[in-house]
Design brief:
Blueprint: H1 2-22, H2 35-39, E1 42-50, E2 55-58, E3 67-70, E4 75-79, E5 81-83, E6 89-91, E7 95-102, E8 107-111, E9 117-125, E10 129-133, E11 139-143
Antiparallel strand pairs: 1-2, 1-3, 1-11, 3-4, 4-7, 5-6, 7-8, 8-9, 9-10, 10-11
Length: 144
């Protein structure tokens, strides 16, 4: 009888210990988002700057509507808003292109509908801000 009581106590002790370990809180944080995941959003113009001469332009109520929209299917939409010669805010049509992240996700190759290509260098990318260096050296900053 002592053997069965000892066995029963051992089983109960193991079950109690197992219940504590199965309810433990996971300390694993989710992995940080990839460059592709961070990029795949609609970004609105914030400013541009030319590092060669220090000139810059901040967005205003018109130009802040300019956007780059990187889709998860590698489609790239863009539309520019700016002032015409009469100082009226106007916009161009939405341009639809394809894009690919290249060189360890540090560059974006954009291919237009006519096959023309341009490369954008990712200067910085976070959950809330994107800075792209264009081929001429000008840096455009966008926000979500």
């Amino acid at each position: 009888m002592k053997t069965s009581n000892n066995t029963l106590r051992l089983i109960i002790a193991l079950l109690v210990m197992a219940s504590f370990t199965s309810c433990s809180k996971k300390d694993d944080a989710p992995p940080p988002p990839t460059q592709a995941e961070l990029l795949a959003h609609k970004w609105f113009f914030s400013k541009w700057e030319d590092p060669s001469d220090g000139t810059f332009r901040l967005s205003d109520s018109c130009t802040e509507q300019t956007f780059f929209d990187f889709k998860t299917d590698n489609t790239f939409l863009s539309q520019e808003f700016d002032y015409d010669s009469s100082n009226v805010c106007t916009h161009g049509s939405v341009a639809i292109s394809a894009y690919t992240l290249t060189e360890n996700d540090t560059k974006i190759m954009v291919t237009g509908s006519m096959g023309d290509q341009s490369t954008l260098i990712i200067n910085s990318l976070s959950e809330t801000a994107l800075a792209l260096k264009f081929e001429g050296g000008t840096i455009y900053t966008f926000k979500r």
